[in-house]
Amino acid sequence: MSDKQNNPNSRGFANYSTLATRRYFRSFARHSSLFTRHYFFSFAALAACLLAASVARGDGARKPTLEAIGSEVQCPCGCVAPLNQCPMLDCAEKAEMRAFIKKEIADGKDETAILQDISIRYGVQALTAPPAKGFNLAVWILPGIGLMVGLGIVIVIVRRWKGKPAMVPVPPSATHDPKVLTAVEEEMKSAGLG
Amino acid sequence: MNQVGSVGLIASLAFAAYALVAGAVGGKLRSPRITRSAERAALGFFLMVTLAVVALEYMILTNDFHNAYVAEHSNRDLLTYYKVAALWAGQEGSLLFWTWLLSIYSALVVWQNRRKNRQLMPYVISVLMGTGTFFSLLVFFVANPFQELSVVSVSGTRAFTAPDGNGLNPLLQYHSMVIHPPMLYLGYVGMVVPFAFAMAALITRQLGDNWIRTTRRWTMVPWMLLGCGILLGGNWAYAVLGWGGYWGWDPVENASLLPWLSGTAFLHSVMIQEKRGMLKVWNVALVILTFFLSIFGTFLTRSGIVSSVHAFAQSNIGPFFAVFLAIILFFSVTLLFLRLDHLKSENKLDSMVSRESGFLFNNWILLALVFAVFWGTLFPVISKAVENATVTVGAPFFNKVAIPMGLLLLLLTGAGPLLAWRKTSFQSLKRNFTLPLIVALVAGGMMFAEGVRNLYAWMTLFLSVFVLVCIVGEFWKGARTRMRTAKENFALALYNLTMRNTRRYGGYIVHIGIVLLFIGFAGQAFKTDAKGLMQEGDLLQVKNYMLRCDGLTTGDNPNYEYTRALITVTKNGEAFTSMHPEKRFYKASQQPTSYVAIHPTLSEDVYVVLAGLDPDTGKAIIQVFINPLVTWVWIGGVVTLLGTLLAMVPSRVEREMAGMRQAQELAVQAGDGF
Questions:
Q1: What are the tens digits of pLDDT across the range B295-348?
Q2: Are A60 and A49 in contact (CB under 8 A)?
Q3: From CA B625, how far away is CA B604, in angstroms rounded?
Q4: Which residues are within 8 A (CB) of B203 and not within 5 positions of it... i.e. 6 or more apart?
Q5: Which of A139, A158, A187 is the closest to B360 by Cβ?
Q6: What is the helix (H) or strand (E) element at residue B531, kind and residue range?
Q7: pLDDT (tens digit, 9 = 90+) per residue, B367-388?
Q8: Option in B248, B389, B497 nearest A85 (CB)
Q9: ipTM for the assembly
Q10: Does chain A have fewer CB atoms within 10 Å around its N or its C terminus?
Q11: Where do runs of H (alpha helix) occur along B523-562?
Q12: CB-based contact (8 Å) between A34 and chain B?
């Protein structure tokens, strides 16, 4: 027998912690409405966090590189591709714009300032994404609003569904008994129906 | 042959218009005779469009430069399979090709439903042929490929036969371009079939499960082909455009993604209707949306309303498509509103933690993504109309918006299938998700220790591991249970498990394919590149690869002249491979293009472009990209394709049930006989 097994305190604590965990999970599961709300809002919160993270990944503070800025500006040659994706060979406009960006980087400007200078020199259409101001703000905020409106619709649908009686009465079943549920799941899995 | 093609076109228009009217009349009068006549007209439509296609292909293959389309898009020295592809290289040919695919789908629908869905068929034919009439009108009157080449002089206009054609656009002379447009078109056009059944079900008020069962496979086929088309397009962009990537959020690329996303939403939500009789309105709305987006995709590709690298396919037919889109929307939405009373849900939601809610979340994210991509794609047009300002909405916008949504979808790819219908117990959640979460956390920790610091890449790989363990666990648990109960070995248990429910396990394989695609996408975060001027003996280093130029050679063949760089690559000081990127100059079109050299491996691709020759030094301008994990994108595509094919195979249970239904019907018929 190991020291750990001989130590009654250690075993007691382990038992206690296991019991406490079980109790916690049982009560959590029992309060199913609380749990479902947690599930629902966790998912919504995760969605919001991901979107916030995407917005928070600001570009202004990044050290500018020709590659990074080349993906954020349009090649002025008319190929309608970002600067670093311009498929034209020996493209003079591409070379000129790259030289301009290199000079801006050498002058120690940050990415935001360089993009501003590019929009002044070549026009706002030279940016592969419009700045988030004025009417152009709409392009940035509407997808988020769309996502939230969609979530609202899902919530309304779910509430309606939950409040509505089933058209076909569901016979009482043993599905709430975990043992029966497990046996049924296994049986179905073996039949490939799961 | 121009006359033969024109006769085919006008006859096809007549057949389509007749079938459109006869279908509607046959349905209204409940006349089997008129309905059969409409079906025969649909077959006639197929034969006549086929005649037109054969006539055009014949002229292309025999270098008949008397025809303006052939002179514009082909030339004598073009390889035969590129000549075949010239059919869809230009506006007129590709619209004819669209019409032909529609006629094939229509003929298949008529043949498959010759004994079933008889109440729906008149209207199905009517809708299919309504679309056929629109495209026939367009091909005959607006973009006719059977025009004679002519020259205008002071004495008037006279026919002219060119000695040779202008040739196929060099960017299209790549093997995946031969199958990319047909796949994409098969996907776009195929969405008309579920739409036709949905409309027929609404008109006839036959809104039970029947139309859903019939259209599920008819949606899976075009969904799969559209997915293949999108990936082949990515493969083309990767190998031909020479910027080292496969997806640039170009408006035309976005247009192909939109119906695929809404189709994905439908393929998931349809299961709720089949199992629980819920989401009926939603499913019809998704079918309408998917068809609308398919036509919108064709409109965007053809109209030129937004700037795109697919400029070779643009023209002035936009207004015709706009009118057709408005008709589709008005007709279908009105019908949907008129039938709302017949589309009531049969069940209630038992729990938020259930398969149903998983599908709802999946649909929510997919539709939000559709909206975001649609909005971003059209914003330049809206900005021009509202503010008269030209703006570009490109990759930075789409990446910011789509990546978080994509990650949520990836999470649902693994979590959704593990939720039970109606209600998932907490014990079941704990049992199903503990191991995948632990494995994913360990893998995530290892990736962080290995230096993965890009948030999105890390999350993608973390979620990919989580989803893979979830799905592999499902196969494992199912097979283990079979091994215990049916006394089978693991391989046999796995096979029987899959074949007894192909739809479910095929779906899981599709999910594995999607995970592999995401793993490939994550590789973009670790892309590196280098550029240099090289001549014989020069070295260029990128990451742990060293490239040595062994010289430049030039050559000539009937189609193009080329300059080829001979590059030897070593990795960590050891011989790795030799690569030969080319710069080509196509004689007929007088256009240059680059032929990228790619050495793919499972971990990363070495991608070398000969961008040109430096005018001052005469040295080759070589650009090298090291693109990690790109191969997984193509592997993911193949796995998704295989999974979809498997899901379409009728499972043993389905076959047994079909057999039972047939036996029952025979027994009833026998009873009637007595």
A1: 998 888 777 777 666 655 556 788 888 899 999 999 999 999 998 888 877 777
A2: no
A3: 10
A4: B27, B123, B335
A5: A158
A6: strand B528-534
A7: 999 999 999 999 988 888 888 8
A8: B248
A9: 0.78
A10: N
A11: none
A12: no
